[in-house]
Design a protein that fits this description.
By secondary structure, this protein is of the alpha/beta class. It contains 20 helices and 21 strands. It folds into four domains: 200 residues, P-loop containing nucleotide triphosphate hydrolases (Rossmann fold, 3-Layer(aba) Sandwich), CATH 3.40.50.300; 54 residues; 220 residues, P-loop containing nucleotide triphosphate hydrolases (Rossmann fold, 3-Layer(aba) Sandwich); 104 residues, Valyl-tRNA synthetase, C-terminal domain (Helix Hairpins, Orthogonal Bundle), CATH 1.10.287. Helix 17 packs across helix 20.
């Protein structure tokens, strides 16, 4: 018997500021759905998710959720007023017996529940909102950019968590690797219309291009038909006026059909111009040391960057990646060691804090007020790679309209602020780009364009990013920082680093178990099976399982501490029951995960033998 949908939207229409966002939209989310919600910045993804969550009322249409179904929504900018700490906020929807879940999730997401709300950063607030959603464990999770402000280790933890959940979820993200690993269906918002494809994000772009090609062909045929009918109207209408009024009316209908077609928004007209050619050696760092108090950023770090290199810096949040960048370009002095910069360097910096943008000034003033972009005697002109441009025309290259040009920067979305900062950066010739978290908030089309531009850029690039796909596409070398002062250089991008990095302790212990298991099977007289190579999904699963096993072991340990209280059963019977059930579930899950790991690891080792 088919189960009822978890959520159903019917004939949803919504208008903001006179412009329709959706008109007659229908949407169904079924149990077990894992859906990617994709579309350009400004297409209405977050608005649709808020309609799904019941936070935005549509002008028309209905939202239906069956009785007893729980829907959870992760807000990008959560309201924490009234809460003293992040943990208090994250546990606010839980019963007293379920509060332990927040601590478990916080460990994976790397935030401290006891952090005061008053001092929490935007990233910490978002992680608390994500922890709240995961701890509440609703039947349908709505996640709006959950990977923003997470480092790669936390993203991988979240990926494993969502991979193992029984809940349905709808996911907005610009992280291709995250979307490809998790989703089984795709919802695409394009000019107020929503299309569904029963396949995950992998392959979405080919599907999108096919849809657009069919649309362009239909528009081309309509244009040809209109031209033919218009020619007949001019040449033959006077002789057949009475008999062919129907054909004239049909021509009017065709023209109305053409005018009703909403043309696609183009891609940003980004362009990077290399300045003068730098010396072959761009940066030479030897023996760099840097500490802040008792925290060691790097020790004994050597790096040589040559012209044309693309070097990515990866590691957990807070290990000092931005600090190392600042030392490498001379913005911060090391405690020990030397940094030698090459000749003829022209440096352009994309700052993850957007500090180069004045939030209270307009987009117009942010560009014309930049001394390096100002055109003497022309208040409406900016200098773009040596050529004067009208400020509005240049903003249109980055998909801003004339109305936005006079709006304050603080009114922009995160993706729009990133595009404005790119507009400032790309107006000036450079031969060394410093990109600190450039991918945050950019839509996938703009990310594609940025990757293409960097591929054609003649200069050198240093970048910090938590987007594994972006690093793979751009980087020629990866510097891995682990928070202990070690910074190790690996050739290639993220996937190359992941294949070369040392085996983690928990991975090593699992390998020892696998080795120990082999003689037992052989002693029992069991013939060795012929090695069967692992598929790509099985390899990814093998990489993810140690983290899943470690998480389950940690959760079992915490539940064991809770159940060790001899008074718990009589004092809080509900909490005792829930903790006992959770312990049983995790022990079963741990046994299954270990069995799966051993099976896959044995096959992987046989394949290598």
């Amino acid at each position: 018997m088919a189960r009822a949908p978890l959520l159903q939207l019917s004939s949803i229409s919504l208008t903001f500021g006179g412009n329709p966002v959706f008109d007659g939209l229908d949407l169904v989310v079924q149990p077990g759905d894992r859906v990617a919600l994709v579309g350009r910045n400004g297409s209405g993804k977050s608005t649709l998710m808020k309609v799904m969550a019941g936070l935005v009322e549509p002008d028309q249409g209905t939202r239906v959720i069956p009785p007893g179904v729980t829907v959870g929504y992760m807000e990008q900018d959560p309201d924490l007023s009234g809460f003293a700490t992040l943990g208090e906020f994250a546990a606010s929807g839980l019963s007293e017996g379920e509060a332990y879940r927040v601590e478990m999730v916080a460990e994976g997401l790397k935030f401290r529940p006891d952090t005061p709300v008053a001092t929490a950063s935007g990233g910490e607030r978002r992680r608390a909102a994500l922890a709240k959603l995961l701890a509440e464990a609703p039947e349908l999770m709505l996640l709006d950019e959950p990977t923003n402000h997470l480092d790669i280790q936390a993203i991988e933890w979240l990926e494993a968590e969502l991979s193992s959940t029984r809940a349905a979820f709808v996911l907005i993200s610009h992280d291709r690797a995250f979307l490809k690993a998790l989703t089984r269906a795709t919802l695409w918002i394009d000019r107020g219309e929503i299309r569904r494809r029963e396949s995950g994000f992998d392959g979405f772009e080919d599907w999108r291009e096919t849809v657009w090609a069919e649309e362009d062909e239909a528009r081309h045929k309509l244009e040809r038909k209109i031209k033919a009918e218009a020619k007949w109207a001019v040449e033959g209408i006077s002789a057949r006026r009475k008999r062919n009024q129907g054909r004239v009316r049909a021509l009017a209908v065709l023209r109305e059909e053409r005018s009703s077609m909403i043309r696609r928004q183009g891609t940003a007209a980004m362009e990077l111009e290399s300045g003068q050619v730098s010396g072959k050696r761009v940066i030479e760092a030897k023996g760099l040391e840097k500490t802040f108090g008792d925290k060691t950023i790097v020790t004994g770090f050597d790096l040589r960057v040559l012209r044309g290199d693309r070097v990515a810096f990866v590691g957990p949040n807070g290990v000092g990646k931005t600090t190392v960048l600042k030392m490498l370009v001379g913005q911060m002095a090391p405690d020990a060691g030397t940094v030698t910069l090459g000749t003829n360097l022209e440096i352009a910096v994309f700052d993850q804090t957007r500090a180069q943008l004045d939030p209270n000034a307009t987009l117009w003033d942010n560009l014309t007020g930049d001394p390096l972009m100002r055109v003497s005697g022309a208040a409406d002109q900016v200098m773009v790679r040596g050529v004067p441009r009208h400020v509005v025309a240049y903003l249109k290259d980055f998909l801003f309209d004339e109305r936005q040009a006079r709006a304050p920067v603080k009114s922009l979305s995160g993706g729009e602020k990133a595009r404005l900062l790119l507009a400032k950066l790309m107006a000036k010739p450079s031969n060394l780009l410093i990109l600190d978290e450039p991918t945050n908030d950019l839509d996938i089309e703009t990310l594609d364009l940025l990757q293409d531009i960097l591929g054609d850029y003649d200069g050198t690039v240093l970048l910090v990013s938590h987007d594994r796909d972006f690093i793979d596409r751009v980087a020629t070398a990866t510097v891995a920082m682990d928070g202990t002062g070690r910074a190790v250089v690996y050739p290639g991008g993220w996937s190359d680093y992941a294949a070369q990095r040392p085996v983690r302790p928990e991975e090593g212990s699992r390998a020892m178990k696998a080795e120990a298991a082999k003689p037992v099977a052989q002693a029992a007289g069991k013939p060795a099976a012929k090695a069967e190579g692992l598929s790509f999904p099985e390899r990814k699963r093998l990489e993810a399982l140690p983290g899943i096993i470690a998480r389950l072991e940690a959760e079992i340990g915490k539940l064991g501490e809770l159940l060790a209280d001899p008074e718990l059963f009589t004092r809080e019977p509900v909490k005792f029951r829930k903790a006992t059930e959770a312990m049983s579930e995790r022990q079963v899950a741990l046994a299954a995960a270990e069995e799966e790991w051993l099976s896959l690891e044995e096959r992987a080792q046989e394949e290598q033998a």
